[in-house]
């Protein structure tokens, strides 16, 4: 299975390409929807990385993908503009919502 990244900046895309992760840089809601639909139809992709900024553009689609048992697995990754404290809070919130334990 492959990993694919949808990013809003070239730096994230280049960094992930260095470790073998293909991806695209997009900026608009329509572009995000188009790429997500393409990835959903590609059976080779098992994990979809998407920056939080882009995930916020299409929360209904992201939630639908996360709640379904189908591939790809959706993982939101921090933007390069996120402050350190916000990133730590995001991880804590994600764990709390996922397993119901306050960390």
From TrEMBL:
InterPro entries: ATPase_V1-cplx_f_g_su, ATPase_V1_fsu_sf
The organism's place on the tree of life at top rank: Bacteria
Keyword flag Transport: yes
Keywords: Ion transport, Transport
Listed GO MF terms: proton-transporting ATPase activity, rotational mechanism
SUPFAM superfamilies per UniProt: AtpF-like
Sequence similarity: Belongs to the V-ATPase F subunit family.
Designated name of the protein: ATP synthase subunit F
Upper lineage: Bacteria, Bacillati, Bacillota, Clostridia, Halanaerobiales
